[in-house]
Specification:
- By secondary structure, this protein is an alpha/beta fold.
- The protein folds into 2 domains: 139 residues, Aspartate Aminotransferase, domain 1, CATH 3.90.1150.10; 238 residues, Aspartate Aminotransferase, domain 2.
- 38% of the residues lie in helices and 14% in strands.
- It contains 13 helices and 13 strands.
- It has a 7-stranded mixed β-sheet with strand order 3-9-8-7-6-4-5, sandwiched between helices.
- Helix 4 links the parallel strand 4 and strand 5.
- Helix 9 packs parallel to helix 13.
- 50% of the residues are buried.
Length: 384
């Protein structure tokens, strides 16, 4: 539970953001106060910041099975996704991207932007359960395809894509095509060894696994052509200019290491809590449908369609009752927009407006989830 203005809330929206893990802020704080130097400088104050930045780079690389020089620090997942898609095609409008209809807005909106500039783009559909067909993805490539981007764990449904299979299918057709994965939702629950996944680029965002907001990473395999999106002083080996947020990098690296160490427990404990929540809803609410429930899902996502109940009304009542949940992506939850993910999975706009997302995290307890699901069942009964 969390306390906000003396109000106790059951927080079931961990896909939007997570609380910091213990020790993360303590690791960051010195670089916001005492060791505040600019890591690009040459004197001792700057060297201390530089040492911390490079140590963080090494720690992140170790968690991904990568080399330190392949780690680019960014301001978050959105910037990392933008760099991954724009970087390889900028300067040549004959080059383009292929991606999926259920991707995060950071990928889809970047794809639409590139299309408006004249780059060839293709958005591939998914199955009713949100599944991705590797051969369909690979078959959607054209002669100008430079990047294929496919999400590891969907942020709205938790559907897990076999990224390694997609990469293998793409590379069989054209080994020069780069494969990128938005793994922002995956760090707490999925192995992200970049060689096993077969990816050339991978995006992370610190606040999704117990780190700070405003800190992200793009893994870029050595030898990948990447024009920077931000030009300036040439930091990050020329791939991302701007003064480093050393405290953010330290916090992200600390949290990622903790998430990797906690991954087995997370899958078991948090997955058990999610499964129990789902079981109780299915028993207590008639007609409930689990979106994406037929395929592999992350252990911490649960996207439900509750017929005859509008999600915005239900979410308001849940909030008033002390339960925090969402209608889908945090980027759109305040806009009352129909989820593009659910529409891509074949739901009508009216059906999508009956869907709510509950996501669980490293702080979630069984008691919280039990109280949350009891509140949900009671409110659905009242609203129906």
């Amino acid at each position: 539970m969390i306390c906000d203005n003396d109000r106790v809330m059951i927080y079931l929206d961990h896909a939007a953001t997570t609380p910091m893990r213990p020790g993360v802020w303590e690791a960051m704080a010195p670089f916001a106060v005492d060791r505040f130097g600019n890591s690009s400088g040459a004197h001792e104050v700057s060297r201390k910041a530089k040492d911390a930045l490079e140590e963080s780079r090494e720690r992140v690389a170790a968690c991904l099975g990568a080399r330190p020089m392949e780690i680019v620090f960014t301001s978050g997942g959105t910037e990392a996704d933008n760099l991954a898609l724009k970087g390889p095609v900028t300067g040549d409008r004959s080059l383009g991207v292929v991606t999926m209809a259920t991707e995060h807005e950071a990928v889809l909106e970047t794809t639409h932007f590139l299309h408006r500039l004249g780059h060839p783009t293709h958005v591939v559909g998914v199955s009713r359960d949100g599944g991705v067909d590797p051969d369909l993805v690979a078959g959607s490539m054209g002669p100008g395809t430079a990047v294929v981007s496919v999400m590891t764990v969907n942020n709205e449904t938790g559907v897990v894509t076999d990224v390694a299979a997609v990469s293998a299918a793409v590379k069989r057709i054209d080994p020069s095509v780069l494969v990128h994965t938005d793994a922002v939702q995956a760090a707490a629950c999925e192995s992200l060894d970049v060689d096993r996944l077969g990816v050339d680029m991978l995006s992370l965002s610190g606040h999704k696994f117990g780190g700070p907001k405003g800190a992200g990473v793009l893994f870029v395999r050595e030898g990948t052509r990447l024009e920077p999106v931000l030009h300036g002083g040439g930091q990050e080996l020329g791939r991302r200019s701007g003064t480093h947020d050393v405290a953010g990098a330290v916090g992200l690296a600390t949290a990622l290491g903790m998430a990797v160490e906690d991954r087995s427990r997370f899958r078991s404990a948090v997955g058990g809590i999610r499964d129990d929540f789902e079981k109780r809803v299915m028993e207590g609410v008639e007609g409930v449908v689990v979106n994406g429930g037929a395929g592999p899902r992350s252990p911490h996502h649960l996207n439900l369609r509750i017929p005859d109940v509008r999600n915005q009304t239900l979410l308001l009542r849940l909030d008033q009752s002390g339960v925090a949940a969402s209608a889908g992506s945090a980027c759109q939850s305040g806009a009352a927009k129909v989820s593009h993910v659910l529409e891509a999975m074949g739901l009508s706009p009216d059906e999508a407006r009956e869907c709510v997302r509950f996501t669980f995290g490293w702080t979630t307890t069984q008691d919280e989830a039990s109280e949350g699901v009891a509140t949900l069942i009671d409110l659905v009964g009242e609203l129906r």
